[in-house]
Each structure stands twice: as C-alpha cells, then as structure tokens.
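Progress narrative, work stream C.
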Amino acid sequence: MRIICSETYEQMSAKAAGFIAAQIHTKPNSVIGLATGSTPIGIYQKLIKWYEEDWLSFSKCTTINLDEYCGLPADHPQSYAYFMHEHLLDHIDILPENAHLPNGLNEDIHAECEAYDNLVKSLGGIDLQLLGIGNNGHLGFNEPDDCFHMNTNCVNLTPETIKANSRFFGSEEAVPKKAFTLGIRPIAQAKRILMVVNGLHKAEIIYKSLFGPVTPRVPASILQIVPDLVVCGDAEALSVIVREHPEAVEMF
C-alpha cells in the first residue's frame, strides 16, 4: 500500500490522474474502472486536458463504472451515466460501445447484475480501478453490512448515504432508494486500485479503513488485503494518518 499526501486537492488530482495516464500509456487497451462523486472531477479535468493536448488517447480503452441508481434513465441529470458523460466521456475519444455502466432501468435485477459481472470477466478483469470512499466507508454502493457482498448487486441505500446524496437531488425524498453496484470481488481483484480522498470530513473514515480491522461494517477496509493499492489524498483527508502513522505516508 502506498499513501501519497498532497497539500491541495488540485495537486492530489494531478497525481492521481498521472497514475491513470501511466496505465493507459503502458497498456493502451486498459480496462479502467471509473467512479463518480465530487472527488474524481479534478482527475477527469486533468485527463481531458491531456487528451486535448494530444498527449493521451482513450481510443482503445474500456471503462467500467462502479454503480448506477435504480430507476433513473441514462439521460436523467442525476444519473451516473449523465455524470460520466458530462465530466469525462463526451470530452475524450473513447468509443461509445466501450463505456459501460449498469442499466438503472432494467427491472430484472438478477439478470442485470449477472450480466455486469460477466462483462467484467469477459474483459479479463479491471486493470486499474479508481475509487472514492463514502462517509461510512462504502465502496461504490457497497454499504456497511454483516458480510461483504462479493458480486454485483442491487442494494438498499442507507439513510446516511441518502442524506449525503440529497444535495444533488434537492431533498432526501427525491434520492433513489436503491442502486446497482459492482461487487467487492471485481473491485478487490483489480490489478491496481487507486483511491482518492479529500477533505477533513473523510479523515477518520480513511484512517479506520486503512488501519482498523477488516470488517464488512467498513467496506473499504477490504482494501487492506489487495496487492496493489495506491491512496492519493489531500492534507486534510490524510491528517489522521499523517499524525498516527507518518512513516506510512509519502509527501508530494
């Protein structure tokens, strides 16, 4: 595990984007796992800039998104499909058929989950998985539970997650209560995992995830056992780790 601390969000985003760019340069047909949320936006802006400068191409890449709300069409402004097109996919040269998200409108939940797992398997797994972390330690929408949910599944969102996401919908009532999410197995089996975290409000949960017990009550704690984990965070998010385990942190 590498933990890289940057002074600012902008520096963190540039460092993390560099890992993704290096992955694509060394393997142009990489399978890249993508995440939504506010934290990756700076990374996507940097990748778009490098594409526009003809320094980076996504033409041979395949992307797999972590999750999608149940019941939202892809053109809904709060769907994750919409988010990805707005913040990355519409601004790079990836082939449309190579950018994948769960179908939030598929009413056959079992079939959708099985198809998504089979898609990842058919691609040979994920080469680099970009992750954020939820306030309660969730990965994608793998919420705290009594067991790790290994395969792609449809989950009931916790009240904490619904409250955290209500800022995007205007109210808690408007937030979908279920979501499809990639399971712990394909996430943890990614050849490299790149986690990004920013802000003081994430300091305790990232510390608990990386240095506490491995438990499904903190889904992100499973990352302690993956063979190639890189964590890029800003100074606020990594403040507890820097205080408690300064020897574990690379300053950037």
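Work stream C, second folded protein:
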Amino acid sequence: MIKIIRARDYDDMSRKAANIISAQVILKPDCVLGLATGTTPIGTYEQLIDWYKKGDIDFSEVRSYNLDEYRGLSHDDPQSYHFFMNDKFFDHININPANVHVPDGANDDADAACAEYDKMVEEAGFCDLQLLGIGRNGHIGFNEPDDVFSKGTHCVDLTQSTIEANSRLFEHEEDVPRQAYTMGVQTIMNARMILVVANGENKAQAVHDMCFGPVTPSCPASILQLHPNVVVVADEEALSLCKDC
C-alpha cells in the first residue's frame, strides 16, 4: 500500500521526509536506517542535521546501510557514495562511524562484495526504514529496468539514462562509472517501512508508474505497491500526473 504525501516544493518535501525519519529515530534510537544518495535526499539530510544541532535528535545508536556504491571507487574517493554520505550527512551528526555501512566498491570481486553486504544487512535484521529516491526510468537504488526483479545485492551495468542523470556530479560524463553494487529489490522490500522522496517534473512519469502502473520489472519501483508500508513524499511537479491521489 502506498500513501502519498503532497509537498509544495523541494524544501517542503525535505522537511516532511525528515519528520518521518526523525520520528523513527526518536521512537527507536537504535533503529536501522537504509539511506540513499543523489541530489534528492540532500535537503532531507540538511534538515536532519539542523535538528541534530538543535538537540532535537540523537543518532548515536543508529545503524545505517546505504543502498549502493559505484564499482571501482574506494571509500575515500571524492566521487564515491561513501564520501558523499560523509560530506552531506554523517560528518555533521553524532552517528558512530562503526555503524555506517556502504557496499565496498573497491572490492573488484563482485560476488564477494555483494555477498558480504547481504550478510551484513541480514544480520542487522534488515532496515526499520528505507529511504529511496526514484530514477526517471523507475529505478530504485541502482536496480534498473529489467525482465525480472532482483533479489540480493548485485553488480549492475548502469543504463545510459542513469549515467546521464548522474553526470551532473562528475566533471565529465565519461568519468561516471559504468557499474555499481546495489541492494536488490527483495532486500529493499524487507524493510519494515519504505520512504520515497521525489521532486521535479522529470520524475512525474516514474512516480505515476510507481504508484498506479502495472507491477513490472520494467519499472522496478512499481513493486512497492506490494509493500504494506510505503510513504511517498513528492512535490506538486513530481505528482503532476497523479491527479486523483
């Protein structure tokens, strides 16, 4: 079941999403958070940082597991998602660095890297709350449109549309890695709550298909319709094709 929360704009979306995450942390201080990268969640992280600095939220017992990482990038590479999370969130709150987990992009043995990450997420009891963005093609994490829904953490070849979307974070498009390690759809679905954030007109079709289209691996996010506790927080532009919700 998908619950849709309308936001006026990006800032409103970020505050509403941060409210949901902060409630999870306050109610269960040692919760397991699944976190996402990309530009969409940045405002949410900034709001959480602001509340932390005001003393409203404590991350000292929180454990986090990020969705994905580029293959071939070490944790300290400025373009890695591990570096991104430190820069945008972890370095500004009191989370224990030992409780922060991101797939090991530096491990070129894809099978070993993915199996290790699956084991860690499973031993943590899966996520209490999984934060997701959504790609223009309906991908979640780096689970691209496919013939089947993925299961555990795996190595993916990024589609051209994803490479183009992520190129804004690199100096040149050719610098964007062509592969990544990502949590699988089944792993995501094991989270007890899923929170999706979306903004902008370019996400409107993907948001509509996620919420109201057929459940198909050609739109990976559509499987969220089968989860019992999904909240989508999106701005008016991203919901422009969802007139009746």
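Helices lie at 10-27, 42-53, 81-88, 110-123, 160-166, 185-189, 204-212. No further action is required on this item.
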